[in-house]
Amino acid sequence: TTTMNQILCPFCKSVNDCMIQSKRTCWCKNVVVPAKLIDMVPVDLVRKSCICQECIDLFNANPSQFIAKYS
Length: 71
What we know:
Blueprint: H1 35-39, H2 53-61, H3 63-70
Helix pairs in contact: 2-3
């Protein structure tokens, strides 16, 4: 079972800097998150834990390497 923590990225477990609960706009609103990356989020964390910017960048730079590491 995956432990749910909305503050941590579901992949690298680093702080994701999510600001969805803030009155300010979250950084993720200005970023395109690839559907294939979203599909990799564990089922119990979908729409509950945000992917961090670093993981999005790593996935975009080398999807196959990211998939090999986190799937």
